[in-house]
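Re-running the complex after MR caught last week's input typo. The corrected sequence lines follow. Everything else is unchanged.
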Amino acid sequence: MLMISPKMASGVQEKQYTPCLLSFFIYNPTFGPREGEEEKKILFYHPSAVEKNEKIRNVGLCEAIVQFTRTFCPTKPAKSLHTQKNRQFFFEPEENFWMVMVVRNPMIEKPNKDGKPPTIEYQEEEILDTVYGAVVRQCYCMYKLFNSTFGRAMEAGGVELLIQKLEKFFYRYLQTLHLQSCDLLDVFGGISFFPLDKMTYLKIQSFVNQVEERLSLIKYTAFLYNDQLIWSGLEQDDMRILYKYLTTSLFPRHSEPELAGRDSPLRPEVAGNLLHYGRFLTGPTNLKDPEAKFRFPKIFISAVDGYEELHLIVYKAMSAAACFMISASVELTRQFCEQLDSLVGPQLTLLASDICEQFTINRRISGPEKEPQFKFIYFNHMNLAEKSTIHMRKTASVCLTSVHPDLMKILGDINCDFARVDEDEEIIVKAMTDYWVVGKKSDQRELYVILNQKNANLIEVNEEVKRLCATQFNNIFFLD
Amino acid sequence: MDGETATGTESWEDCMLAPVDRLRLERADSPTPGLVEGTEPGAGQRSAMFVQAQSFEDLTSEAEEEAQRSAAEENPEGPDEGEYKVQNHDFSSDSRTKEEDVSSEAWRSHKKHVFVLSEAGKPIYTRYGTEEALSSTMGVMMALVSFVEAEKNIIRSIHADGCKVVFLTKSPLVLVGVSRTSQSDKELLRELQYIYYQIVSLLTLTQLNHIFQNKQNYDLRRLLAGSEYLTDNLLHRLERDPGLLLSAVTCLPLASCSRDAVSSSLQAAKAKNLVFSILLAGDRLVTLIRKKDQFLHHIDLHLVLNLVGSSSSFREGEGWTPICLPKFNTSGFFHAHISYLEPASELCLILVSTDREDFFNMSDCKQRFLERLSKRCAYQSLKEALKCPTYPVSQVGIPDLRHFLYKSKSSGLYTSPEFPDVYRSGQEQERLMGLYQDLHSCLHHPTRPLRSFYRCGETENLLAWVTSGFELYLCFSPLASKASAVAAVNKLLKWIRKEEDRLFILSPLTY
Amino acid sequence: MTVFNQLLSNELPVQPMMPGSVSSSVTCCPFFPRVVLLQVMLLGDSAVGKTCVLVRFKDGAFLGGNFIATVGIDFRNKVVDVDNLKVKLQIWDTAGQERFRSVTHAYYRDAQALLLLYDITNKPSFDNIRAWLTEIHEYAQRDVVIMLLGNKSDMAAERVVKMEDGEKLAKEYGVPFMETSAKTGGNVELAFLAIAKELKHRATQQPNEPKFKIHDYIESQKQKSGCCSLG
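Corrected-run output:
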């Protein structure tokens, strides 16, 4: 007979809830200044089913918090509100426009005997402000990438247009937020660069130059391989958000057919023609289709006099992807797309296999991959380069990490520490689980290492990290 | 000395320190190996003097949950309106320079504001500016608290760049801290908790509840008039005193035979209602005698230290004052006889009695103590020890070591050298304390505690280490290497072990 | 009266002799106690200057600078000479704050004399005197000696309570009155001495001896606060 101790029984039924999005709203306090008009302040509210008065109340609280904080910091606005049950993140991206994200704290539900409602324990220390603050800022950047600023919508079509745009964008975008797996990488919002030998790099550069020359409509180009950036003609900040879009939204959506395509050697419709795997990820799915539409998503990037509106063409062959950006004032035709397909398709296919080959050789030289004793995250604030061996794979839905979430949060804590002081620093901690975590900050670069060497001491840990720096980062870190 | 050298190379991460183990065998008869709580340097030999406080966490536990030790309870003095016939109107006569424009940049940029208000939103205390000028600000604070409460939720804190606001609701009071320091929310809450206990120690929680139950709108400043300086001083101490951070107190370095003589003299001067006898040298403990089975919580002791240290009114005569020790019992008053052994001396005797009418008995206890003390010649050696109440870090003999804090968890006592020249100025001292606070809050993180923390920066290198027996915080010169830091820990622990009977109270007594 | 007799005590240590003191004659006398012990309590609102008056009397100094609130009650001794008799005054300095009221009440009944102070520059402290007197009647001994003092008489420019008002109030309650200044020392010594004399006379009075009249004594000795500022 199976015996279950009472403790075990209750343990089994205990339910753990990860942090989740409770609400997300955007308001402008100047839009309904009079009493009774409060609803006018609200430009977007998710979930929309929330009762009107509750929306007004919640917006009112945010206004009060922001106003109250000004008593003490007139220049630095409130960024977050911590409560027992949730955290609210405030962001004022444009004057008087406030974005608020409310995240429920993770919680444990413990069942009670005698039919009493379960006890809920909120884990108030689990959410890192820096991480979720960055998520809100990212929400705005993503909106701006596809819609330009709130102010522009107001100019073009008043509040109605803005509300419409917000609805359209955030309704879908919020579904792609996966708050339970946000971590330090969201704070950095960095770009992963593909490591490449000089020769191959030059090949890519000349490819870009050639395409831009032949198709003079192209204003900017970016080149990626394996979801990692190799070349970009955009400003860093624009590339950063475009990169985020490509790697967490566009590429994952197309990864399935891509994988399938690799099994069948060639696209049937081009088999008799030029041998290439190239295809449009944005715009027409099939050039041969007489009904095909030649409409591409429009993006907004920063320009000297405000912003620049562009068509975004993403073209991919095997693991190589090229993004071409063309002024939105130009109408893109079938002819142009065919021209691009025939020019870029074969070359990109060739380049993709070149890079793949080169990459394999390099891997072989550096020796067989054995599971290292450490995992690390690296970020460079100057070129936004990031590298992580902690994250196994980043897809639209989940960001898989190979370490315990608590260790990831310790990395976040160390990052907060670094952010406070503008000087080089090194922090080495030993967690209760006996893992060692090392953080180094030097000249705009940050490195975080997790070592699974429970019996090592401080000196040994230091040696290990030294070795890592020497092999992976050419000793860019100051060492003692 | 072969054993010595071998143990010297033992890594400090191992949580097992051979020298300690060796000494432990000399001191205790339990053969259990390893460094367990109660055998660390500075651990008392008999029973502890203090409540076994789990340092930090303990502070957040509700005072009400604290086991009520009823032995020394006194009937709470529930104030009926009749008792307040004589009213004070002299808030303005307060000598603090609070006349500060609360809309000025200077007021805003204070490093740490603290506000206390009633649940009706009435101002009770502000660290800077006047309560009157801040009544609307405090009204907003209360509105925020109630608004979130109405959603069956609790407001904790607001964060802006470089500034945070922390809320603590302790019915019938609400405390709000606004800080520009890097301290964690948890640290700030701990400080607000201290302020709360400070107020309770003046009035008792029973009286507080009673007042606000009768009259929600009561202006508590009437009852707290003249006590603002205690809160001001406590806040100052929180910025400077490692004891408040570590939940521990430090002792006057004194040869153990002298300390024992002082202790037994004090032990002999007992009386029926006497619960605690505390002898202080400034902010340092010389000895503490307690009634059997009665423990003094470190928070209560810090409140006593704050009262004595903040007020020069005890200097001359013999003071007699009601005091509530909130961690002991929030509902009743003790009465404390407070006097300096000599007007110009640093030695202050505090005799805590349960009886309001006990003044002459306590005065008599003091006389008896003094007589015994001088008979045993202990007074002379005590006065000698007063001449060097601190020690320079150089005594330890570790070149790169600038400063350290060592707390023995089981005894609740800590030791620390004087601040070296680099940290002599008030500002630098507070900066170092800030660094220690950071280390402390990292190590004691509520959900992600750490075993050790090493930080290498441009101005200093810091190392912190917590075991089940002790907490250690070290500050090195920025040039010190990690290897030297590791070696320093072993050397320092040995030194403390060697000096422990001078730096700690190893044999605390009861009546 | 029995309470008082208990206080005629022999067990107190001999106080250091003042130059020119004739106390030896007292100590020789086998029928007379060496030292008379008297308990005096200072009362009044917070910040009227109770501690300053005490320090002026005890140490002849003025506590300038910041206001230091007395915590609870503070107990000090001072030995004075009254008609060649050593009188040891045990002086209870009390905190004016409301929250210490209960601890002061506990020691009211032990006091033989009460010095009740108000601040001539602070009207509420004067207005509260009636409340204080009510309290005194409730808690103190019936025959307690009370004296009303208007303190801070040196601060003429800030005066808000007229001397006549003080006098009038004192008359109404039948208690002696004078204005004092802890800063200049004006009348401070007199206040304590008058009380000591009164109590000493009560304690040692022979049936046929003329009664000590504290009012007359004060009137003959006290300096008007005006004198100082004129001089």
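None of the earlier attempt is carried over here. Residues 15-182 of chain A form a domain with the Beta-Lactamase fold (CATH 3.30.450.70). The two ends of chain A are 63 Å apart (CA to CA).
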